[in-house]
Amino acid sequence: MNAQDLVAVAQEHGSPVYVYDAQRIISQYERLESAFAKAKNLRIHYAVKALSNISILKLFKQLGAGLDTVSVQEVKLGLAAGVDPKKIIYTPNGVSLEEIEQVAALGVQINIDNLSILEQFGSKHPDVPVCVRINPHVMAGGNANISVGHIDSKFGISIHQIPHLLRIVKNTGMRVNGIHMHTGSDILDIGVFLYASEILFETAAKFDDLEFIDFGSGFKVPYKEGDVSTDIEELGEQLTERFNTFCKEYGKDLTIAFEPGKFLVSESGYFLTKVNVVKQTTSTVFAGVDSGFNHLIRPMLYGSYHKIENVSNPDGRKRYYSVVGYICETDTFGNNRQIAEVTEGDILAFSNAGAYCFSMASNYNSRYRPAEILWYNGESHVIRKRETMDDILRNQVEVSLSIEQEV
């Protein structure tokens, strides 16, 4: 999509608004498939939590992808999109046994990440095959909040607890059909990923009935010019070769699985906002837009970087602005950014807004969540309507109170 396309979307559908380039999603999926083409059996489970709009899930279904889910609601959303339950993996954290049993009844692949639930589930449902999530104690990821494979992480079963894990499997008679890990997001050093993979191979060799090994994801995409990203082609070459060797040693052609979210949808997304006010102070110039961290929380939550462009005036003289939102707290999208000269009414586009952006939006300050648009073959398609006051009030229940006050 170019600047003119983005302005056209904002003019047609209003702002703020999320727009996703379908072709970019398709090309990223095909790139990942190509990187691991030498694997005999490959399965890509799209991580629903990154962007859960049902139209996006249907797009991935058409591409042949499965789904990676973390809640029973995401599982039901995937089923509503028509995805085969056998192509959905459910990897929750800290949920109840009851929820796991509810998902298992839907025919979805269960992935368990703690010994307590594993023992309880195996004792009650020994005939239901499960995957187990291993914590390899490897630090990876671009931020402490998204690094989930280190020793202090709440995720996964520690590699030091493998003997206990094997005892539970033996005592319950349950069947483990998959081994899984996820070290974290924004992986830069594929050497670290390959090191963690060796730990997973060592663990996998201890189980006799595996059907797949799931390496999670966390592949980094570029956020700015000159930014580094995961060399997915090099990783595919090295990991596939090692995986194929392991399969020969194991005596069975297993499936190699991944669960990318950000890698597939981040670069497809743009968040479009209108400049409400340009405010000069003694220290800076603020560009205040018609949105805030209620719609795009990642800069405030993670300190994440999103490139900001003035698509209304892309060739204007570059000046420095602090782009801020309208929430009544510190609400900053970017400090001291060089942007083509901004005037009130201009449209600013935030890049890399496809992953963990709308899905983390809220109604804070009782603001409506924005519309979502899918851009395909040069046309815009509404895939979520902008909310209204009816949506804000929908589940609220008014009660009549008679409050007596002393005179």
Automatic annotation (TrEMBL):
Record EC number: 4.1.1.20
GO molecular-function terms, A-Z: diaminopimelate decarboxylase activity; pyridoxal phosphate binding
Keyword Acyltransferase: no
Biological-process GO terms, alphabetical: lysine biosynthetic process via diaminopimelate
Orn/DAP/Arg decarboxylase 2 N-terminal domain segment(s): 24-266
Residue numbers bearing the N6-(pyridoxal phosphate)lysine modification: 49
Top class in the EC scheme: lyase
Active-site annotation: 328
Sites where the protein binds pyridoxal 5'-phosphate: 218, 356
CDD domains, per the entry: PLPDE_III_DapDC
Subunit-structure text: Homodimer.
Family of this protein: Belongs to the Orn/Lys/Arg decarboxylase class-II family. LysA subfamily.
Described function: Specifically catalyzes the decarboxylation of meso-diaminopimelate (meso-DAP) to L-lysine.
HAMAP family documented for this protein: LysA
Name of the molecule in the record: Diaminopimelate decarboxylase
Gene giving rise to this polypeptide: lysA
